[in-house]
Design brief:
This protein has about 400 residues and is an alpha+beta fold. It contains 15 helices and 12 strands. The protein starts with 18 loop residues before the first helix and ends in a 7-residue tail after the last strand. It binds protoporphyrin IX containing FE.
């Protein structure tokens, strides 16, 4: 029997930016799903927390009620730049996505595979003789950074400048607002320099050139919108892919028989990465703003209120995934929400999957006996609200001559 609709809120002591949640968010998600799947949190100005698969899916699909403008960040950053297209609503979202849809198609990702693989092998070759690697610093950070800077047409050699600023913003929004603003200004400045370069030397076939020449309703984008579009490509692609690989190497350290299976059967890696994305979703949840009074479950949500859609919790909901806390690479169906769903579904999912898969394939082919240093969880970011990732992942392996 359905519950009567209520305006009374169940208040949950839930702060997605807290270090407790960052250390292990999953017990809190389970409690929310079981006790109050539509809960109210008093943190960050107050917001609804949606944690069940059905509610998160339905709210994300109802993009007219659950809007992405003015910001999907919860709380919004102090620097006040909106990110395109993620902070927009229909029809602007579709118009902006169209600019890069072809560049992120499955075929475009496939064409990039040789380049991504070459980069992966060269990064692993660089440490092969030493028998030591920090998987995050030496491998899963530089690879996506260099690939994405390359497609934007930025100097790949500057990857440390960009990743440092992206990390400061992604993990510092509530802890270090001044540092976050400074990092955003520096990123904007670097993108601006690239725009100037194209204005003086001409456009190329890179994505920044595509964004600068795009017309929406017959008009070029403003300079500020070009900057914020390019910035989102950096936010979208760097830390998410880094986190996916590092989280997976921790899982495989804990489960030697699964590691052994993937070493012997690399053809299982594509379906395994879907399960890894479900199990430890890199993007845990993002915000929306309620545009009109609505009801979720039996709970009234009021126009103007904010809501957090927890994809990572939805991905552990037993109503959708039997034995959700077990890693099962043969799980079928596996309709995880790690890339979101609906209007704003990840634009870079094909490229993200490609980089994640190739990085994992090359580790398992070249250093299958890696042993992580003790307690990898000590390297979790203290704020995992935006991306569940690690700062370091040191390991040893049997040294070998370069390939
Ligand atoms: C494993 C890797 C990745 C994960 C888990 C991930 C996750 C997500 C999620 C959950 C969203 C939905 C946001 C929303 O509904 O508000 C999203 C959007 C987006 N992602 Fe990804 N992402 C990944 C990789 C990438 C890559 C490699 C790129 C680009 C190079 C990228 C670019 C974007 C962009 C531009 C959007 C905004 C789309 C829009 O608003 O229409 N992502 N991503």
């Amino acid at each position: 029997m359905s519950q009567p609709v209520t305006d009374q809120r169940v208040v949950a002591a839930f702060d997605h930016h807290s270090s407790d949640i960052a250390a292990d968010p999953y017990p809190a998600y389970q409690q929310l799903r079981e006790q109050c799947p539509v809960a109210w949190s008093e943190h960050h100005g107050g917001f609804w927390v949606l944690s069940s698969y059905a509610d998160v899916f339905a709210a994300t699909e109802d993009d007219d009620t659950f809007r992405s403008a003015p910001s999907i960040a919860l709380p919004p950053p102090q620097y006040g730049i909106r990110n395109l297209p993620i902070d927009t609503d229909a029809p602007e979202t579709q118009q902006l996505r169209k600019v890069l849809l072809g560049a992120y198609s499955p075929a475009a990702a496939k064409r990039m595979e040789p380049e991504v693989r070459e980069l992966a092998t060269s990064l692993l070759d660089a440490v092969a003789g030493s028998g030591r690697i920090d998987f995050v610093q030496d491998y899963s950070t530089p690879l996506p950074a260099r690939v994405i800077l390359g497609i934007l047409g930025f100097p790949a050699a500057d990857w440390e400048f960009f990743t440092h600023r992206v990390h400061t913003i992604t993990h510092g929004i509530t802890r270090d607002p001044e540092g976050t603003t400074q990092a955003a200004l520096e990123l904007a400045g670097a993108i601006w320099t690239q725009m100037e370069d194209r204005r003086t030397r001409g456009y190329g076939d890179d994505q920044l050139s595509m964004i600068m020449q795009a017309r929406v309703d017959g008009e070029l984008l403003s300079d500020q919108d070009v900057v914020s579009f390019a910035m989102l490509i950096l936010f979208g692609g760097l830390d998410t892919t880094t986190g996916s690989l590092a989280n997976t190497l921790v899982l495989l350290e804990r489960d030697p028989s699964l590691r052994d299976r993937l070493v012997r059967h690399p053809e299982d890696i594509p379906k395994a990465i879907e399960e890894f994305l479900r199990y430890w979703s890199p993007v845990q949840g993002l915000g929306r703003t309620v545009s009109q009074d609505t009801v979720v479950g039996s709970q009234c949500l009021r126009a103007g209120e904010r809501a957090l859609l927890l994809w990572a919790s939805a991905n552990r909901d037993p109503a959708e995934f039997p034995e959700p806390d077990r890693v099962d690479i043969d799980r079928s169906p596996n309709r995880h929400l790690a890339f979101g769903v609906g209007l704003h579904r990840c634009l870079g999912s094909n490229l993200g999957r490609l980089m994640f898969r190739v990085m994992l394939e090359e580790v398992l082919a070249r250093i299958p006996d890696y042993r992580l240093d003790p307690d990898p969880e000590q390297y979790r970011y203290e704020d995992a609200a935006n991306v569940y990732a690690l700062t370091h992942l040191p390991a040893t392996f049997t040294p070998r001559a370069r390939a």
